[in-house]
Amino acid sequence: MNSRRRGWLIPVVIIVAVIVIFIAMFAGKYNSYVTAEETVDQQWSKIDVQLQRRYDLIPNLVNTVKGYAEHEKEVIKSVSDARAALGGARTPAEMADADAQLSSALSRLLVVVENYPTLKADTQFTQLMDELSGTENRIAVARNDYNNAVADYNKLIKRFPGNLLAGMMGFDKRAYFETTTESRTNPQVDFGTGNTSLRFDDKAAPMNGVFAAAVVPMAGASA
Known about the structure:
The chain is mainly alpha-helical. Helices cover 70% and strands 0% of the residues. It has one domain (2-185): de novo design (two linked rop proteins).
């Protein structure tokens, strides 16, 4: 009788042990995916904060430029429209598109400013440019941190056997927040303030007055 019990008990114990191991592995992987995804979202929120800061700086910049170059209506309007598009963006992909539009509009505005020496010497304009330059530097740093978090997350969910569990649990690949090729070919513009040059650089760490380049829409990023 005891031998019969042991005969069916051993398979049951093995099955239960396998189930426990699977549950432990499942829970461990799930928690690691959640942690990595939360890190990606946290880094994205830092980009969002800096984009909002730049959004808030634009009206004062536009109004200052209007005081000296009001007839440059087309360029000024393009900046205002791009800012409005950024304010209306709701998803990361929409925000990336709007930010690319705003970066392009700002670059055109600042090239036009070169024709107005009095404006370049204006104290308020210089201060705004300093603040905008600092914000752009922070955007570049936040973008780099976000891309590193995305790289770690994507590697985690793509490795076997984790990729099988990731698909079952609904963890999808996240897209990088990258500059476009053409955005890195924009010319430099020196305003003579020591730290307000317009330059696009995707590889090196941002130096004085580096403005954020246009970005590629981030399909798959969390809102």
